[in-house]
TrEMBL record:
This is Bidirectional sugar transporter SWEET. One of its GO terms (cellular component) is endomembrane system. InterPro entries: SWEET, SWEET_rpt. Mediates both low-affinity uptake and efflux of sugar across the membrane. The keyword Transport applies. GO terms for molecular function: sugar transmembrane transporter activity. Belongs to the SWEET sugar transporter family. Pfam families: MtN3_slv. It comes from Hibiscus trionum (Flower of an hour). It is a multi-pass membrane protein. The keyword Lipid metabolism does not apply. The chain crosses the membrane at residues 6-27, 65-87, 99-120, 126-148, 160-180, 186-209.
């Protein structure tokens, strides 16, 4: 008989697929405009790191096949996002993204695998160490949109915080928190519980600031940063 935890895990995988694919509209915009504009690369860097380590955790921990499969999918998708960022970001952001990718997604993951295989002895201890790392990084992944939330509050615009991403942060956190409770996995439960809370916070911000949407250009005009082409060179638009 199929267990409830398996059913919830499958639903979690389906929701996670949509979570990983939710930034597609953002990257279509980036490719179309050939610019990353004010979008942040760190959410994709941290999600790639998180997915890589959860894949390792799923492979190492017996009974965590569902965790391994969905995060393996996430590694592929997030890698594509990071590559697109490296292609279309301006030089300074491209350099920053490249350094973060090399240090976190390559260096840290490789170091984790080597240390846990060569230094940490015993399967259960290895699972515990990997689980603690994954839980901590999962919190960072869920917290990475905080920069976008700050931008929303500052500009009073949700332009750079896509609704679908916020929605699936909430749904992903909710379903995996339930799964963690069912299988009694604290390493899954704690970070996804925090993700659930942050997802709710993002949706609340979206509800507040989407009522009077402003694009980034409109916000800059409000701040007097756009110079009127019809005025003299020294005159700025005052709204």
């Amino acid at each position: 008989m199929i267990s409830l935890s398996f059913v919830v895990g499958v639903i979690g995988n389906i929701i996670s697929v949509f979570f990983f694919l939710s930034p597609l509209s953002t990257f279509r915009r980036i490719v179309r405009n050939r610019s990353t504009e004010e979008f942040e690369s760190f959410p994709y860097i941290s999600t790639l790191l998180n997915s890589a380590l959860w894949t390792y955790y799923g492979v190492t921990n017996p009974g965590s096949f569902l965790v391994a499969t969905i995060n393996g999918f996430g590694v592929v998708v997030e890698l594509v996002y990071v590559v697109l960022f490296l292609i279309f970001a301006p030089p300074r952001i491209r350099a920053k993204t490249g350094i973060l990718f090399g240090v976190l997604d390559v260096g840290f993951v490789a170091a984790t695998v080597l240390v846990t295989q060569l230094v940490v002895h015993g399967d259960q201890m290895r699972i515990t160490v990997i689980g603690i790392l994954c839980a901590g990084l999962n919190i960072i992944m869920y917290g990475s949109p905080l920069a976008a939330m700050k931008t929303v509050v500052r500009t009073k615009s949700v332009e750079y915080m896509p609704f679908l991403l916020s929605l699936f942060v909430f749904l992903n956190g909710a379903i995996w928190t339930l799964y963690a409770v069912l299988v009694k996995d604290i390493f899954l439960g704690v970070p996804n519980g925090i993700g659930l809370f942050l997802g709710i916070a993002q949706l609340v911000l979206y509800a507040i600031y989407s009522r009077k949407p402003k694009t980034s250009d409109e916000w800059k005009m409000r701040e007097g940063l756009i110079v009127s082409s019809s005025s003299s060179v020294n005159d700025q638009i005052q709204v």
